[in-house]
Amino acid sequence: MLVYPQIDPVAIALGPLKIHWYGLMYLVGIGGAWWLASRRLARFDAAWTRDTLSDLIFWAACGVILGGRFGYVVFYNFEQFLRDPLWLLRVWEGGMSFHGGFLGVMLAMWWFGKRHGKSLFELLDFIAPMVPIGLGAGRIGNFINAELWGKPSDVPWAMVFPAWSDPAQLARHPSQLYQAALEGVALFAILWLYSRKPRPTMAVSGLFATCYGLFRFIVEFVRVPDAQLGYLAFGWLTMGQLLSLPMILGGLGLMAYAYRRQAHAA
After folding, report:
1. Which residues form a coiled coil (predicted)?
2. Coil, helix or strand at residue 160
3. H-type helices in 145-266, by residue range?
4. Binding residues
């Protein structure tokens, strides 16, 4: 069993002002995405400036935050919203959904593309390889916050999380680190290498959706579901898995369509 590192979730405290590591992870994700996107900007569109790229990243970040919050409320805790509608705005109390953020980014990219003469999937293919930076950083933030941990386990790397987080004090799968490794490191490597060569439009987006969906579906087997939802069916199906299934099927469909369309155009 590994010892959980006691890391203060508050990175910087200046009087009443507190900056949490989880919030800093968002900055890492956004900054890292901008830096890597700037390296591929000329290949994407030589006419685009750094200012245009900054606008793109800004609106993508808005899609992540607004969509992530809205998605969590709708998918994971809608009853709480019905009891207290203003809870939707209290983002500091926690509660973000990747799948909601994913839909938020799609909407933001559709809107941004309309303004700059780009299709939705042109933009999604461009930014998809950068997204795992934010995903990996976010999971590290979850780990520091000692939240979203896994099921009890006797594997050698199981951890006992702080009592304020897990009153049962059981050795558990550090599922946040599993997700950081898969959704962050592995997904980044796959997409970055795949997108180094020209691919048909929609293929990179399809690969992102497929791989993320698969990784999330797998890790959910060892992650404790949200307490207010529990398992949805069969004693094992979680909301995260249910929301990931359309991503897997849709991603595979996008890749098949992209290559079929390319073959017909040849």
Report:
1. none
2. strand
3. 175-179, 187-194, 203-219, 239-265
4. 139
Q: Is the pTM of this model over 0.70?
A: yes
CA distance 153 to 176: 14
Percent of the chain with pLDDT over 70: 98
Compute the chain's Rg from CA coordinates.
Answer: 19
β-pairing verdict for 159-160 and 17-20: unpaired
Amino acid letter, 254: L
Q: Which of 70, 63, 65, 42 lies closest to 112, judged by CA?
A: 63
β-pairing verdict for 159-160 and 171-172: antiparallel
Q: Which residues pair with 223 in a beta bridge?
A: 150
Dist. CA 249–CA 259, nearest whole Å: 16
Question: Between residues 123 and 46, which one has the greater pLDDT?
Answer: 123
Residue 266 has pLDDT above 70, yes or no: no
Assign 92 a pLDDT band (cuts: 50, 70, 90).
Answer: low
**Nearest CA-CA partner of 58 in 103, 108, 107:** 108
Phi, psi dihedral angles at 251 (to 5 degrees):
-65, -45
Average pLDDT, the chain: 92
Residue 26: CB atoms within 10 Å = 19
What is the reported pLDDT for 83?
87
Cβ atoms within 10 Å, residue 120: 18
SS3 string, 35-100, reads HHHHHCHHHHCCCCCHHHHHHHHHHHHHHHHHHHHHHHHHHHCHHHHHHCHHHHHCHHHCCCCHHH
Report which of 208, 168, 169 is spatially closest to residue 188, judged by C-alpha positions: 208
Return the C-alpha torsion angle 239, 243, 248, 249, nearest 10. 120
Q: How large is the average pLDDT for residues 153-163?
A: 94
